[in-house]
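We close this part of the discussion by returning to an individual protein. The sequence in question and its structure tokens are set out directly beneath this paragraph:
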Amino acid sequence: MATADLGSTEWERSKISAQDINLLKKLGISKKKDSLRFPSEESSNASNRPLMKEFIRLGTQFVGYHDHAKKLEANLAEANKRADALALKLEQSEKARKKAESDAAAIEDLQKRLQDAETSLKENIAQQSAREDEILARLESQSRRFVRKTHQDFDLESPEGDRLLDALSLLEIHGDEAREGLADAKAGLLKLFPYFFAKKKSPRLLLLLPSASILKKILGSICDKKA
């Protein structure tokens, strides 16, 4: 491309020189042919030296720009690679964050459920304790009624250490004593008054007698009336 520009420049110079010669001829001015010389090759080379220097300078700059562009492309590729790696890490971090939030929500829900379960358990324990206290009060009341009627009080030899179980054990003892007293009363009545009861059928009255002490009172009142 530089060669073509130089040729066109030389052609323009030769054209201008020919026109000048024709103009001089029309004006009647004569000049020797040798005096009208075209620029020689040396003068042409001399005039082309600044242009060649400019071309060399531009070529050097082009090579420098090309190397710099290659370096920039490499840096850009490295930056893109790092950006992709950062994007991947960011995506992984986002997934980890969402998982952590989900785990935190699950833990919070689990803690709430655990707290609700503890509250419900405390309420159930309180209700059970109140129910046990009520049962204990009723058992102790029945034991006191037996003591008032039989005038017999008992102590456990080996208590369980549980008030409810110990009260139940005392009530069982009183119940056993009452059953034994009723059996003794039934046997005594059958021996004293055989003509009042059938041989194979027990009277309903015997089932209603609470204890042997009542039987003693009945027998005592009967004896007092006969006397």
In short: The chain has five helices and no strands.
